[in-house]
Amino acid sequence: MRRLFLLPALVMSFLAANAQDTFHEQRATLFELLPVDSTNIVFLGNSLTNGCEWHELIGNPKVIGRGISGDTAPGVYARLDPIVKGHPEKIFLMIGVNDVSHALSADSIATDIAKVLDKITAETPSTKVYLQSCLPFNESFNRWKNLAGRQQVILDLHKNLERMAAERGITWINLYPLFSDGEDNLRKEFTNDGLHLLGPAYMVWKEAVLPYVNE
Asked: How far is CA 25 from the centre of its chain?
């Protein structure tokens, strides 16, 4: 009986992974064809970035979203070329939570994010880069098993990222406290699944980054 139970679970896991890969390719190939220029402000990241209409939220048609659900630091690195070739004015990067869910260490994830930052600064030095922290998640929703017990990895990652930003002259934006309930959980009023954001959460995000967008 146990084997009969495990088989559907394995099949569902495979189908979910395949669907994610398919979506990533769909989104990435679209972004390859959409132009980026020196007036653009790019929000780059995973599903949290993907989930927002950034130009409408910020109220600026030059703001563009380049988020892909499920993306990781290596995934972002692999699709940087169409972005950096346009030499955008600014890039706001948030990445890492999916890497955490893959059971990677904070140091390993930081190394992969460093590669993203170094490629950006090397290939488009005129671009102002803003490195945003990851956000907390909330295990009480029982949705994201691979993140269970991994809050400390995110906190350790943030120490690495803040240091890396300082070393590179990159602006560090620590969003984590704004979204935390004070006990390292994503505030329940900001989510309906423990990880992804509801509209009011994006309004908080907007207020945090708007001074940097406008500077």
From this structure: 17
